[in-house]
Amino acid sequence: MTMEDARKHPPARPGQELERQLKPRHVIMMALGGAIGAGLFRGSDTSISQTGPGAVFAYLLGGVILLMVMQGLGEMAARRRDARTFRDLVSPVLGPFMGHFVGWMYWLDWVLVMAAETAAAAGFLSYWFSSVPIWLLALIVSVAMTVINLFQVRVYGETEYWLAFIKIAVLALFVIFGLILLFTGFGGHPGPGFHHLTDQGGWFPHGWHGFLASLLVVMFSFGGTEMIGMTLGETEDPERTIPRAARGVIVRILLFYVLPILVIVSLVPWNQLGKGDSPFVAVFQSVGVPYVPDLMNFVMLTAVLSATNSGMYAASRMLYNQALRGQAPRWFAHLSSRNVPVRALLTSTVFLYVGVIVAFFAKGHTFDYLMTIPGYSVILVWITLAWAYLRSGRAGVPIRPGLRWGAGLAILALALIFIGVIATTPVWGTAVVALVVVVICLGYVAAHGVNG
C-alpha cells in the first residue's frame, strides 16, 4: 500500500485488528483440505473417463503448475508481514487496480461456491433425512456455518482442521487398502497388479485431446489451495508458516490425488468408471466393502461442509480487506468484540440464503444451477499471483532463477488452459463472466477515475 493510500485508508485501531489465532497446524490442514473436495471425489470420474489411466499424469502436471504458483505466494508472504490477504501481495507490485480486481473476483468466486456447496450438503443430508425438504436442510447448514464463523477465528480453524482430517484419513486408508488389494486379490480374484493401466487402450486411449480436456477438470479440482494466502493476517508467524505450507503442496498432491487415482485405475478398468457415481464408490463396491453408500455420503458431506466453511472465511476476509484498502465501503471493515469482520461475514452469507431460495424452487438441482459459471476466477487468481511474483523481481526484490522460470511456465500453462476453458464452456457462461469483469472494472473507474 502506498503512503497516499495509507493516509486515505488508515489501518484499524489497536484492539480492532484481526488476531493471529491460527496455528501452523490449522494452516497446514487448511492447505491439505483446500484441494480435497468434491472435485476429487466426484470430479475424478470425469477426468478418468476423458483420459483413461493417463489421468494420473494430468493430476501430476496440474500439481507441478500449482507448486510453481504456491512457491511464489510463499516467498512473497515471507517478505510482507503487514499483508492480511494475498491481494496485499499483488497490489504493491501490480498496482491498486489489480488488487481491486483480484480481490473482487476472488470474493465473488467464493460466495458462489459456498452457496453451491451448501446446496450440495443439503442433498447429501437428504440421503438420511429424505422426508425433510431440501431447502430446509440447506437453511440449517447455512445457519450452522454462519454461527461457527461468528466465533473467534480459532473456532473456524479447529472446525476446518477436523473436517479436513476426516477427508485425509479416508484417503490415506483408501490408498493403503487399495495397494494391498492390488497384490493380494479380492472377492476370489487374484490381485490385478497394474495390468489395467495398459490393457484397455493404453495410458491415453483418447489421445492428447482427452488429456487436455481432463486437465481443465484437474485445475478446477485444485482450486482452494491458494486459500492459505487469505490467512496472512490471522496466522501465527506467517513468514514461516505460509512458505512451509506452500512448499508442501506437491507432496500433498502426490499423496492425496495422484496415488488415489493410480489405485482406482489399477483396481478397476477405466472404461468401467464414468457411470455417474464416484470412482471411490465403484472401487469399494467391487471389493465388497459394506455400507459403501453411507460411508461415501458421509465423506462427501464433510468435503462440502469444509468447502462452505472455507468459503465463508475467505469471502469475509477478502471483503474486509477490500474495505480497509478503500476498494469497498469502510462499513465492511468493522470488527466484532471477537475480532471477526462480522459485517463482511454476514453480507457474504447472503449468498447462502440465495442458495436456500434456489433450493426451494430447484427441487434438488441447485448445485448445477449455481455452478454454471465456470472457475475462471481461480485461473485468473493463479495467473495474477505468478505475475506478481515475477514483477516483484523487477522491483528489486531478489528471486531465485529456478522459481522465476517456474512462474513464467506456470503463466504460460495457465493461459493455455484458460483458452481451453473458453473453447469448451457454453457461450452464455463466458458472457456472464465477461460482464462481471466489466462491472468490476467500471467499479474501480467510478471510485478512482481512469488514472486512479
UniProtKB/TrEMBL annotation:
Coiled coil: none annotated. It comes from the Bacteria. Pfam families: AA_permease. It is found in: Membrane. One of its GO terms (cellular component) is membrane. Keywords: Amino-acid transport, Membrane, Transmembrane, Transmembrane helix, Transport. This is Amino acid transporter, AAT family. It comes from Alicyclobacillus macrosporangiidus.
